[in-house]
Amino acid sequence: MVKIFNVSQIKKIDGCTVINQGITSIDLMERASLAVAEKLIRFLDPDQCILVFAGTGNNGGDALAIARILLSRHFKLYVYIVAPDELFSDDCLVNKECLERLTDVKLIKENQDIPHIPEDCIVIDGLFGSGLNRPLEGVYLDVVTVINASHNKVYSVDMPSGMFVEDNASNNPEGIIKAEKVFTFQFPKLSLLLPDSANYCKKMTVVNIGLCEKCIKEEETDLFFIEKSDATQLPIPRDNFSHKGTFGKALLIAGSYGKMGAAVLSARACLRTGVGLLTMHVPRCGVDILQTAVPEAMVQADEFPENVSSVGDNIDQFAIGIGPGIGTDDKTKDLLSDLFDKYRKPMVIDADALNIIAGDESLKEKIPSKSIITPHPVEFDRLMGGVSINGYERLQKAGEFANRYDIYIVLKGAYSAIITPERKVYFNSTGNPGMATGGSGDVLTGMITSLLAQKYLPLNAAILGVYLHGLAGDLAAKSKSQQGMLPSDMIEYIGKAYRALK
Ligand SMILES: NC(=O)C1=CN([C@@H]2O[C@H](COP(=O)(O)OP(=O)(O)OC[C@H]3O[C@@H](n4cnc5c(N)ncnc54)[C@H](OP(=O)(O)O)[C@@H]3O)[C@@H](O)[C@H]2O)[C@H](O)CC1
Ligand SMILES: [K+]
How many angstroms from the chain centroid is the CA of residue 124? Predict the structure, then answer.
């Protein structure tokens, strides 16, 4: 797992690296800058005009070092330092003086010094990084406004300038660089993983700068970024002598009139994820649909034609998933309440089941311990009874909710977050915007329920389910495009996603 740290932890690890590796801070800056420059060199066109905007701190120092390295590789550069008071950090000053020996470096001290930014150029943004401690104002705000208005591709060093590493609730949305890509050092930054960063960071690339592994190991955090190597360790190998009983029994309670597709998708995804036996509990109108569309599943018909209203006895033998397409009919509300009374093992709760819970406080108290709920942000806000001001606040609330009700929350998004009852957060690294379509969540519910049935611990079921779901989405997008892919395609790629983990 890659750890995610706050600013003071990053500073501490920096300092500790300098001591333990016997280097100076300028060596570390050079290493970081070289790592970013090498990435840029791979795709930048040497004939394109590149504008570098540096600040006066260490983020600026990085940008100036990157400019020097690019110049040595014959890129065409124009360099500006925004320095209203000309107070430079020591390492920034060293890099400024080095660069001034090679090229003209212009200072921007006030608004009138801001250059016209032509179209079709590239901007390298090194105004501010993790040292930002207040929203941008004055000439800094003006420079950011001009860069954003130029609509050129902007590559940011460490952070989009103007964006805080964690909470941006008090920030000025106009005072943040809109970056095409952010090359962030060593650790993903929390704010870059939250949905509010969509306008400011289209893509994040984590650049390894060789910080001291021992310091990283010793520094504690509750925030993690899931990598392939983490997911690879999770699948439970299949024993030669195993039989269908070995891989558990799942019961998916899904569907209502007009929403049987959700039941079909969750059923197929559950089976493709490896469950031994799947039973679908659906309204009577859905029996033929399920039996035809998913022959591998057994079907239990509800007594009602259009909605699910009750589940039978003997449900302890199953891992249960409830929600896809069930609607919020009163009969279905009764079912959920009854289910929570009867069944005390972890279950997967999604979609309309969450909307039902949102409308009834007493149901929250009854959610079985260690269950996994899988809301998207709107469902989560409904569950909280109010909209969060930003992704950071939503994450805090999710931590409190998970802790209070002793459950796991999969907060779906570009980097889906798995929040544990201990308030730890694991961000997923797979997936793409092609998955943002109706049915995608039903697939995830089926997958996680399947893993619970196969005796994965709830946390592992959530992590592996979310990772595989995203990976299947990535494989589907590769073959069918983000626009053309469907949740059904993702299901077809679950097998390949498993293979990719080998
Ligand atoms: N391990 C690493 O990640 C490494 C990171 N590096 C780079 O260093 C920066 C962080 O550098 P730092 O000098 O700490 O901070 P900044 O460059 O982001 O900011 C510089 C100073 O600017 C002042 N400040 C803050 N906010 C504002 C604002 N809104 N307007 C004007 N000025 C502002 C603040 O100083 P004050 O005294 O005014 O409080 C900042 O200190 C990191 O992002 C990386 O790029 C290293 O190069 C390698 C290791
Ligand atoms: K920056």
Answer: 25
Tell me what pLDDT residue 117 has.
Answer: 95
pLDDT per residue over 71-116, tens digit each?
999 999 999 999 999 999 999 999 999 999 999 999 999 999 999 9
The single residue listed with the structure tokens 């600013």 is 7
Q: How many residues does the chain have?
A: 502
Pick the ligand that lies closest to the CA of residue 139: 1
Residue 246 has a pLDDT of 86
Tell which one of 2, 19, 130 to mutate to probe ligand 1, the residue whose CB is within 8 A of the most ligand atoms: 130
pTM above 0.80, yes or no: yes
Which residue among 33, 58, 192 is best mutated to probe the pocket of ligand 1, counting the most ligand atoms within 8 A of its Cβ? Answer: 58
Query: Quick one: pLDDT band at residue 484, thresholds 50, 70, 90?
Result: very high
Task: Work out the pLDDT band at 243, boundaries 50, 70, 90.
Answer: confident
Please state, in angstroms and rounded to a whole number, the distance separating the CA atoms of residues 2 and 228: 11
Tell whether the model's pLDDT for residue 244 goes beyond 80: no
Ligand 2 center–CA 153 separation, angstroms: 14
The residue among 340, 324, 317 whose CA lies nearest residue 448 is: 324
- pLDDT (tens digit per residue) in 127-174: 999 999 999 999 999 999 999 999 999 999 999 999 999 999 999 999
Long-range pairs, 475-482, Cβ under 8 A, ≥24 = 475/500, 476/434, 477/432, 477/434, 477/435, 481/434, 482/432, 482/433, 482/434
For CA atoms 261, 263, 266, 271, give the dihedral sign.
negative
Residue 120 counted as an annotated binding residue? no
**Structure tokens, 50:** 């590149």
**What is the 3-class SS of 198-262, one letter each residue?**
HHCEEEEEEECCCCCHHHHHHCCCCEEECCHHHHHCCCCCCCCCCCHHHHCEEEEECCCCCCHHH
> Is 458's C-beta closer than 6 angstroms to any atom of ligand 1?
no
Question: In the prediction, which pLDDT does 346 show?
Answer: 98
Which domains are assigned to the chain?
A: 2-221 (3.40.50.10260), 229-236+247-500 (3.40.1190.20)
Which of 68, 133, 177 maximizes ligand 1 atoms within 8 Å of its Cβ, making it the mutation to test the pocket? Answer: 133
* Residues linked to residue 183 through DSSP beta bridges, in sequence order: 157, 205
Q: How far is the CA of 496 from the centre of ligand 1 (A)?
A: 43
Rg, Å, the chain Cα set: 26
- Report whether residue 53 contacts ligand 1, using a CB cutoff of 6 Å: no
